[in-house]
Design goal:
heterodimer; A: about 270 residues; alpha/beta; Rossmann fold; 9-stranded mixed beta sheet; two-stranded antiparallel ribbon; 15 strands; B: about 350 residues; 8 helices; about 25% strand
């Protein structure tokens, strides 16, 4: 028996991982040099959450999928041009600052307030998805805080798999130490699931889904509410690139036997 | 004046504290001495005897115990930690960065009206507490501070030595917890379906396999099976942990040859882990992930690569061998075998 789900995916945007990052300090605090012109992508782990959510929604007819994203409108629009072709969703954009340095508690407060106000959202059907950590702040706390603010006390982080059952309960596999998963069974929604990589590949671009999404995305972007994030007493003493630069020894002229001997000696050394 | 609480929990056996918890205890003593602040230690376990390693600490010990806390579960763990925090009333809470506590600490901080920062790699500061952590997946380092209290600081594992005191019968104060409705049942742990467990967080060495292992070799053929044997042979001989680049793990989903024992759990870098090991050997990797992000906390780094101009290894690895990894690793394995 299919379940009707209301899945909300929280996903930020991050600089393309291939970009060189240089921190700078401006009047409002730390940031990245040329941050607004760096190519951006949907946060990788949150993207996994979106693909899993889309798959789950497709398997459960009548389900609904929202993508809640906080970032500068212009950057959100740029990223959505690609993301919109991969899964059907309703975008809920929040016009706010970009980057990893704003306080996670403020971010969570804005996200929770936005989610609580989503028209038609039924909390008894709510699965709150997101990445278990972002590729910017990487704190792994925002989704937890949103869950707490929404009063959800069934939370799972580092999720790689969810198996929904006919009665609405579901089995979750979330990562623990040593390359293992903890296996839990939750009675059902509402629940928070912070995704790791999951098991699904990135969907291929589908222009038809993209066109359907863009009809609602552009008006949503135009109406996006602006959010100001409080610092909550967070103060940056320094922000810098790692200084450690190693002197690399390039070994070009050794035979495999000689390299192997050197490596074995190195492996055995304390 | 600051007051410090260190939160700890039992390990998988249930009879001792986890290593990361003991590391947090060390951090607590260091910070307590630095700030001249009183220290309390909170323990979460089935039985208070798990705290016996702390018998000699000479500070207040609080414990939440019971069968409900045998396994990690958000609802019960959050209630337990909230109770410990309310009993200790700290201004600073140090939390070990275990999977169990990282998934619940932020919720507890919120319940107490506090704030949290995670993945802390160092604590310092003269007048106030300053915490060091990384942003952008270990590419930017920052030192931060907060005025707001209580302030939860989740410490990365491996950043402090584990506390080693004289064991005995620890005297703990039991803290009562009002259990919430339990809607989640934990049925246990499951290892990934692989031929061998290749992720070993306590190993001295990390072996990183890149996508080059499953590319065409000089004879024009792909030797994925041979690559798998060489890698597993090395892991068996050395006890090393296996990491992989994203491109190699992703190949499985794209229909290309794969190493069957690799999963996303092995992945290091932007969308993987950043493990801590004393040594790291990277093979057949061409990109930023293994050498910059995934290796941030690897002490001594060597690489085998065919590309003498690989910009990512320069300044990141200590030694780069320009060679084909297949014959080198075959020879390494036979030398290691002969040494046994």
């Amino acid at each position: 028996m299919a379940n009707t789900l209301h899945i909300v995916v929280c996903a930020g945007i991050v600089p393309d991982p291939l970009q060189t990052l240089e921190p700078i300090t401006g009047p409002t605090g730390p940031g990245l040099k040329n941050e607004m012109v760096l190519p951006a992508v949907l946060d990788p782990w949150a993207a996994s959450a979106l693909y899993e959510a889309a798959s789950l929604a497709a398997k459960n007819p009548g389900s609904k999928l929202w993508l809640v994203s906080l970032g500068p409108k212009a950057k959100l629009q740029q990223v959505m041009m690609t993301v919109a072709q991969k899964a059907a969703f309703e975008l809920v954009p929040i016009d706010g600052p970009i980057g990893g340095f704003p306080d996670a508690h403020s971010t969570a407060a804005v996200l929770a307030e936005t989610i609580a106000a989503l028209p038609g959202l039924e909390r008894t059907k709510l699965l709150l998805f997101g990445g278990w950590e972002s590729a910017t702040r990487g704190a792994g706390v925002t989704l937890q805080l949103v869950g707490e603010r929404l009063g959800i006390t069934d939370q799972f982080q580092g999720v790689d798999q969810i198996d929904l059952r006919g009665d609405g309960s579901f089995e979750v596999l979330d990562r623990v130490e040593g390359g293992k998963h903890q296996v839990s069974v939750c009675a059902g929604a509402p629940a928070v699931l912070g995704w790791a990589t999951g098991n699904l590949p990135e969907p291929r671009n589908n222009p038809q889904i993209g066109m359907a999404n863009m009809r609602t995305i552009m008006p949503a972007l135009q109406k996006a509410k602006a959010a100001k994030l409080e610092a909550n007493g967070l103060r940056y003493v320094s922000v810098s690139l790692p200084k450690q630069q190693r002197t690399t020894r390039l070994v070009k002229d050794l035979t495999p036997d000689e390299i192997a001997a050197e490596l074995v000696e190195w492996i055995g050394a304390e | 004046m600051e007051t410090i609480l260190v939160l700890t929990h039992a390990d998988e056996t249930g009879s001792a504290l986890s290593k990361a918890s003991l590391e947090a205890v060390t951090a607590g003593f260091e910070l307590s001495a630095h700030l001249k602040a009183p220290l309390t230690i909170g323990v979460l376990a089935v039985d208070a005897s798990a705290a016996n390693a702390l018998a000699s600490v000479g500070v207040r010990l609080l414990a939440v115990t019971g069968e409900a806390f045998a396994q990690a579960r958000y609802a019960t763990d959050a209630a337990a930690l909230e109770a410990l925090c309310r009993a200790a009333n700290p201004s600073i809470v140090l939390v070990p960065g275990t999977s169990r506590f990282t998934r619940v600490a932020a919720g507890v901080a919120h319940r107490l009206g506090g704030f949290i920062d995670t993945h802390i790699t160092a604590l310092g500061g003269a007048e106030s507490v300053e915490a060091t952590r990384w942003f952008y997946r270990q590419r930017v380092e920052a030192v931060l501070s907060r005025d707001a209290r209580p302030w939860f600081l989740v410490l990365d594992a491996g950043t402090h030595a584990a506390f080693a005191g004289e064991p005995g019968a620890a005297q703990v104060e039991q803290v009562a917890v009002q259990l919430p409705e339990i809607r989640t049942t934990v049925s246990g742990l499951r290892a990934p379906a692989t031929d061998a467990q290749t992720i070993r967080p306590d190993a001295k060495m990390l072996f990183v396999a890149g996508a080059g292992w499953t590319k065409k070799q000089p004879d024009g053929l792909i030797h994925a099976a041979e690559a798998g044997e060489l890698i597993l042979g090395f892991l068996r001989a050395t006890g090393a942990s296996l990491g992989s680049s994203k491109s190699l793990v992703d190949q499985g989903g794209e229909g290309e040859p794969v190493l069957p024992f690799l999963t996303h759990m092995n992945q290091i870098g932007q969308t993987g882990s950043t493990p801590r090991h004393a040594k790291g050997l990277s093979t057949c990797c061409h990109g930023e992930e293994p050498h910059v992000v995934g290796w941030r906390f690897i002490g001594d780094r060597r690489a085998i690569s065919l590309d003498p101009n690989c910009g990512w290894t320069r300044g990141k690895a200590d030694v780069v061998y320009i060679a084909d990894a297949f014959p080198v690793m075959a020879r390494v394995n036979s030398l290691l075998e002969a040494k046994k």
